[in-house]
Design brief:
The chain folds into four domains: 2-56, no CATH class; 63-125, no CATH class; 131-190, no CATH class; 200-268. The chain has eleven helices and seven strands. The chain has helices at residues 2-13, 20-36, 41-56, 63-78, 82-96, 103-115, 118-129, 133-148, 154-162, 170-177, 180-190, and strands at 200-203, 210-213, 216-219, 228-233, 247-252, 259-262, 266-268. A hairpin with a 2-residue loop joins β2 (210-213) and β3 (216-219).
């Protein structure tokens, strides 16, 4: 059996028309065949159908259609649109096997073309050139919030913080930076501090949850009524979308380690 099946694998995989999902499928069958030296009846049938399709397929796809797809691949690669590149290559593989595109595939292809049209490219170029330092600051604040509260926007947030030259797409920027949660975080982070360094503060009666010390988190209850001094405003990135979430480093009198407390839990201290 191996002597009959292996040449079929060799013939299919040597054909440049075998691409995308078809190639992946045949390669997975070949890997199993190499390990087990056999295929199930259904797998042999599937392998035979692929071989028959390739034998009946045209030697090449329509030149105009091929040129259209190749041009779109180049545009997609320039925009780092890896999904589009893979999608277009899978369409080329399908066409090379003699199978026409479905209405849904044609619809998606047209959307990809619109996304990488001359007009869309010009719009992206204009967006990149108008990306300001203020927009970058807002993006980094939002990125810090999302990394502290996974899993949303994780890859985009890491790139935004690691690469000072990174400019996201307009769509990605608006999704990550201009949603209601990020907007609140940015508002808190950029607001003028209500308490400056050296100010005396106390915890509000409504303060709850915990504050972070150098040695870990500890409850707020035992510190209610105690006077403290602000060591630093904006001591940590804002990690909550609640109003008044700017973070202060506060040293409560009689303690040796400062705590990180959100602005909403603080009030002016009285001696």
């Amino acid at each position: 059996m191996a002597q009959r099946i292996q040449p079929i694998f060799d013939s299919i995989l040597a054909d440049a028309r075998c691409t995308g999902g078809t190639r992946s499928f045949i390669e997975s069958l070949q890997e199993q065949f190499t390990r087990k030296k056999s295929l199930s009846r259904g797998q042999r049938s599937a392998l035979g159908r692929v071989a028959e399709q390739m034998a009946a397929a045209p030697a090449s796809i329509d030149p105009k259609q091929e040129s259209r797809l190749d041009n779109l691949v180049i545009r997609s690669q320039a925009a780092n649109d890896t999904w589009a590149v893979e999608f277009i290559n899978s369409l080329k593989g399908q066409l090379s096997m003699g199978r026409e595109l479905s209405p849904r595939q044609t619809e998606i292809l047209e959307k990809v073309e619109a996304r990488h049209s001359d007009e869309a490219i010009a719009k992206r170029d204009n967006w990149a050139s108008s990306f300001t330092s203020e927009m970058r600051e807002r993006m980094k604040i939002a990125a810090g919030y999302y990394l502290a509260n996974p899993p949303y926007f994780a890859d985009l947030a890491r790139t935004a913080l690691d690469d000072d030259s990174f400019v996201p797409s307009e769509k990605a920027y608006r999704k990550m930076v201009e949603n209601k949660f990020a907007s609140r975080v940015i508002e808190s982070a950029q607001a003028e501090p209500k308490f400056n360094a050296g100010s005396h503060v106390m915890l509000r009666s409504t303060a709850h949850a915990s504050v972070t010390f150098a040695r870990g988190k500890q409850g707020l209850t035992s510190r209610k009524g105690k006077l403290g001094m602000v060591v630093k405003a904006n001591a940590k990135p804002v990690s909550s979308p609640a109003r008044g979430s700017k973070v202060y480093s506060v040293l409560f009198f009689g303690e040796t380690q400062p705590a990180f407390v959100e602005e909403r839990w603080l009030k002016k201290g009285k001696r």
